[in-house]
Design goal:
alpha+beta, single chain, 6-stranded mixed beta sheet, globular, 20 strands
């Protein structure tokens, strides 16, 4: 069942000739966690605000649980949309305790119902023992849990997150990503969050929309977009990759690194195409055993792996810089790196 459906949503702010969001479409099923990914100014927060009802779309329709909440004739106010929101700065009431913050949106219920819902969501969010504390007595991670509990307590149709991990230090991010994913799935909630960090997307999103200049470039599972980006922008934004021109041949693709053999080639022979090869798809081999050779110009240690920046030359002596991931214990006696691509490592991009 679709909880949220955006049909050709557009937003043009007064006084501007540009579209902040243009012809944006998105469908979210019950229980899905969906990310809106993009750099600052791409329109992702504007989409979130239109879903919440804080911004009125210039064009298009928004449906929540099958009900139209916004089109050219209809606009349902934010407080009547049954949407929960976790703000970037948490927006907790500083003069209220954890308990009082969480029950803030439950004023229409009886005292017994309020208690039952609060106790349940406090347990799910791991806030037991903190009920009497004030926001200034909480850590960043605890504040986020309280904000999440407050948003989820009224059991909204959908929960919206605005950059949920931007105010948390890197040490806490990994744990918080996992905690939030588990909490959302435990409650069978549906969520949308905006972020500029692909690690957030990989960690908790079931689906992602990659945005640029108000347009959705690609929508799909994070793993699929990582492996099969539609163009150079998505490929590069969704993690490090090697972008290069290649000529189609009968056996595969002739790249600056050499011939990469591919079965079932669909492109026209001799056509020039742009290809993407992720660094981890280039297998580093013992010295002298690789089909391809690169000159190492930079080596960086990242704990779990080493990042090798290499220069390769084609038959015309044209130099291309590529990135390869090697094991952390990789040692090279010379400044050469021997490697070969793994099977199905190459992805053809659209223009």
């Amino acid at each position: 069942m679709n909880i949220l459906e955006l049909r050709n949503i557009g937003k043009q702010f007064p006084g501007s000739t540009d579209w902040a969001v243009k012809d944006f479409n998105l469908t979210i099923e019950k229980g899905e966690i969906t990310a809106l990914l993009g750099e600052s100014g791409c329109g992702k927060t504007t989409v979130l605000r239109m879903i919440a009802g804080f911004e009125t779309p210039t064009s298009g329709c928004i449906y929540l649980n099958g009900e139209c909440v916004s089109d050219d004739k209809t606009f349902i106010e934010p407080q009547h949309r049954q949407v929960g929101i976790v703000f970037q700065d948490y927006a907790l009431f500083p003069h209220k305790t954890v308990w009082e913050n969480i029950i803030f949106g439950l004023f229409r219920l009886s005292a017994e119902e309020v208690k039952q819902k609060a106790v349940k969501i406090i347990r799910i969010c791991g806030l037991e023992g903190l009920e009497k504390r004030y926001p200034h007595q909480l850590s960043g991670g605890q504040k986020q849990r309280v904000a999440l509990a407050r948003a989820m307590a009224p059991e909204p149709r959908i929960i919206l997150f605005d950059e949920p991990f931007s105010n948390i230090d890197s040490k806490m991010k990994t744990q918080m990503r996992e905690d939030i994913r588990q909490i959302i799935h435990k409650t069978q909630a549906t969520a949308v969050f905006v972020t500029h960090d692909t690690k957030d997307v990989m960690a908790i999103a079931d689906k992602v929309s990659v945005m640029k200049q108000g347009i959705a470039l690609q929508i799909g599972k994070p793993e699929d977009i990582y492996k099969y980006p539609v163009n150079a922008y998505v490929a590069d934004f969704f993690g490090k990759t090697n972008l290069m021109m290649a000529r189609v041949s009968e056996k595969g693709f002739i790249t600056p690194m050499g011939l990469i053999e591919v079965d079932n080639i669909e492109a026209e022979p001799n056509k020039m195409v742009t290809v993407s090869i992720r660094p981890e798809q280039l297998k580093v081999l013992p010295e002298g055993k690789g089909h391809m050779v690169g000159k190492i110009i930079k080596e960086r240690f990242f704990g779990e792996y080493k990042e090798l920046t290499c220069i390769v030359e084609d038959h015309d002596n044209k130099k291309t810089e590529i990135i390869i991931y090697a094991s952390p214990g990789y040692q090279c006696k010379s400044n050469k790196c021997y490697f070969e691509p793994n099977n199905n490592s190459l992805n053809i991009l659209n223009d």
